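User:
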Amino acid sequence: MKLWFSYFGKTLLLLLVMLAAAYPFLKEDPVAEVHELAAWQMPSKLSALDSADQKKLLARMTYPERMPDLDPVPDFAAIKDTAKRKAAFFDYLQPFIDRENSRLQKLRQQLLVLQQQQAQGQAFSLEEFAFIYSLFDEFKVDATEADAEGLKQLLLRVDEIPDGLVLNQAAKESGWGSSRFAIEGFNFFGQWCFKEGCGFVPSKRTPGRYHEVAKFSDIAASVNAYFYNLNTFYVYDDLRAIRAQVRMEENAISAQKLALGLKRYSERGDQYVLEIQTMIASNSKLVDES
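Assistant: Predicted structure:
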């Protein structure tokens, strides 16, 4: 009897280890964290699955880090010491950047596992198909098949944006957190919206144009929208191509090199890129890219 229990215990332990290795993304209650996903991050193919696979899919898609405290925008202008003001500004944004990148890392790692699985001739489960097609929808990938090309296109978009780029763009676009759009609407990246009442009407808006400067409910929503913009909008195809090339050659993403893909972020084009690159260099000691 003791031998049987010993054998059973070892077998159960082995099964648990195998399950953890196969599904490192599983959590105790993934449904409880779904509310932290933006509308466009909700898995679109959830209804195609049974309840068990729905939990697996939700666990794949949710953030691995919980939401940081949603504090109001600090009065950065009141910090007279320039170095301290910059450090405070970066410290305020950093947890939300980390959170977005941690989810991208989580999604990307799963895609790499599925890519390897496919290369070995292993068929995808229904839940794995649902995961891939949900990411097609979230990241606006124009693919109809979960084949090698479809996964390749996903991996171009499901990837990190380096801290140095995000932080310095935020500083540039918000005047180090002093702009009205940042203070009143958490808009740190100069993002526009195109529905009446969605934000602030620019005082110098050209007649005939109808864009507004977007207003966000909190800092997390602002950072989330920025990441979504750079990883999905077609005008940043070059940025994503640069990122893929740099990752392949160096296995790390350089903020300086990725800035070259921002020519269409501003009407100033190359001059804007140069300004961002200059800021990245001058503030490099404040950014931990490790």
